[in-house]
Amino acid sequence: MKNKSLMVVSIAFLFCLTSSVALTMAQCPRCDGTGELVCPYCDGEGEITVQEGAPCERCEGSGTLEPVVIQKSRSAWLNDGKISVQISYENRESINTYGRVTAAVEVKDNTYASTSPRTLFPANEVIQVSLTIDGVSSEDYNTLQAQQVFSTNITLEAENVPCPYCSGTGLTPATIECPQCDGTGFIECPECNGLGVEGGERNADLDIGGTTYGVVAVAVVAGVVTAAYVFVKKKGLKEEDLRKMPAGEFQNWVLKRLAGKSSSPSDSRVGIDGYALDGQPVSIKQETDVGRNAIENFAAAIGRRNARKGTIIAFGFGADAIRGRVRAKMSYGFDIQMITVKELIENRNSLI
Fold first, then answer.
1. Is 85 within 8 Å of 75 (Cβ atoms)?
2. What's the maximum distance between 2 C-alpha atoms anywhere in the chain?
3. pLDDT tens digits, 141-178
4. Integer Cα distance of 151 and 240 in angstroms
5. Is the pLDDT score of 231 beyond 80?
6. Short-list 157, 143, 69, 159, CA closest to 105
7. For residue range 255-282, what is the model confidence (pLDDT) as tens digits?
């Protein structure tokens, strides 16, 4: 039946040629006929910024800084057998931080102290921290009363804050050429395969005959071709069908398209679902928004198998997936290819 349908298409095409009838195809609506789209990974810049540069000079690669929290004032007084302490602090950072305040008083050979609970120091604000030192012996309390003036040691242990100069990564940003568009800022339109017309074929510069018979012939032939084309395409799987397919069947379909084979149970446990014809590890995700974490986890998996290349298949990839791919390449030398299910259906990848 399939051969018969293809024969119908061929006869219809030959009929169009012999009748000198040209079918002018419509301009691709997605790219407006240019055949190109702005690269979504670099927003048309041709470059992407990755956190893979040199260690940050401000935090020396640690990713954190000691916050600037200034003591503005303090006071202490005796209060019914206890010592009350109040300290004023100003957080001069642009982000909140936390810390604990300790107040200590020494009387002869004894030290009495109190530590606050974990306290919030809001960004660019002044706050008061109050402490009560209890457990002071009667003798030492009387000594303090007799002195009238006594010293209080105040310490603040503030928690480090993420370094604002490297966003807490410990690395200065590095700009590299976008590997998705090779630095051009544009990618091929997937709807028209870069040709600018619907259906992925270029318009023919031919004149359309003006006779009634010519118009009727065009309509009849177009109807036959369309019907035959729909009949043939109907038998193929669509993305919607594959999304609903059980996970095991979906993996088998992908591996069959790659002429590959299934992985062993031990490989599956580390994130390798199969191997392509050339032996490359393959990870198969029945998901739409596969991101950086999945790419980096797969890089770790192929590293355990001493491979240098790998392929990850998904319905789509998130905006940060390319960063995971770049990091795997720059940090470990792994070349990870990202292929969509649509490309598999249309045979538009280098593994088929």
1. yes
2. 121
3. 999 998 878 889 999 999 998 887 777 888 776 677 77
4. 76
5. no
6. 143
7. 998 889 999 888 888 889 999 988 899 9
- Judge contact between 94 and 101, C-beta under 8 A: no
Asked if the model's pLDDT at residue 254 lies above 90, the reply is yes
- Distances 326 to 49, 143, 167, 247, 335 between C-alpha atoms, Å: 10, 69, 19, 28, 9
C-alpha 310/C-alpha 94 separation (Å) is 43
Estimate to the nearest angstrom the gap between the alpha carbon of 335 and the chain centroid.
18
Distance, CA of 127 to CA of 245 (rounded, Å): 59
Place of tokens 């009238």: 148
Distance from C-alpha of 249 to C-alpha of 228, rounded to nearest angstrom = 29
- What's the confidence (pLDDT) of residue 13? 53
Of residues 286, 313, 288, 287, the one with CA closest to residue 298: 313
Extract the tokens encoding 333. 């030398």
**pTM (two decimals):** 0.40
